[in-house]
Amino acid sequence: MAAACPCGSGASFADCCRPYLRGDAVAPTAEALMRSRYTAYVRRDAGYLQRTWHPRTCPATLDLDEVEWRGLEVLGVKGGGPGDDAGVVSFVAHHATGVVSMGALRETSRFVREDGRWLYVDGDVA
Length: 126
Fold this sequence. Notes:
There is one protein chain. The protein is an alpha+beta fold. The protein has one domain (about 20-125): Nuclear Transport Factor 2, Chain: A. About 20% of the residues lie in helices and about 35% in strands. It has three helices and four strands. A four-stranded antiparallel sheet has the order 1-2-3-4, covered by helices on one side. The longest helix has 14 residues, at about 30-45. It is globular, with a radius of gyration of 14 Å.
């Protein structure tokens, strides 16, 4: 049985986010990009995160510390479809830091599509 994708889509990793992380395909929607970026955080793939971050807002380095990402819930999507140039995705990403410290990151992320590729611009953390 194939391993489930960390993004919570219900599909296998091979059929979901792996093609994006490997560069074999580009995410067709803002939500797909957000899910693949969550998977990149789970897998500590800084290269993918930087490649999918808008150059205007991308940090020079990423610190993918010892946070253990435990699950993703998509709360809402506005725009971000195949025919759009911008989109917003709201989500909660559950995590643990250490043995007993559990938490959740709530973010409303903004995305733009440039040259046929979706890019993460920035987000508001609640």
